Amino acid sequence: MTSLAAAAHPPVTNRGADLKALTGALCAFDTGVVAPDNEAFFRRLGDEVPLRLERHPSGARHLGWIVPPRRVVRRAVISRDGTVLYDGAAHPLGVAAQSRGVRARLAWDDLRPHLVS
Question: Is the pTM of this model over 0.85?
């Protein structure tokens, strides 16, 4: 277990604007069960509330489940006729967590069941 003590950002108050700013800042991190920004996310959250973290490596068993491998989205685009219609790597929420990569040409009817909005 590890306690994080970070003071890089001053704590926000309970005012609506500050809460909205904090939510925006936290949503910008690429987080998940196993994700690249988890350390930075929890360090930032630790500026606001006291935390005690437990770390478990990928493949470890914990509370009845196995910690999944870390997957990093390097490229995730949907394009048509050479024009990018959607860039899933542009935002941490652009690709569902633990998605497996695929490179394929799909008709709309085949692609649609795999899209979430």
Answer: no
Eight-class DSSP state of 108: H
d(CA 101, CA 94): 13
Residue 62's Cα: distance from chain center in Å?
Answer: 21
Task: For residue range 47-83, list pLDDT tens digits in order.
Answer: 988 999 888 889 999 999 999 888 778 888 888 899 9
- Report helix, strand or coil for 52: strand
- The span from the CA of 79 to the CA of 74, in Å, is 16
At residue 93, the 3 state secondary structure works out as coil
Residue type, 3: S
Cα separation, 67 vs 14, in Å, equals: 35
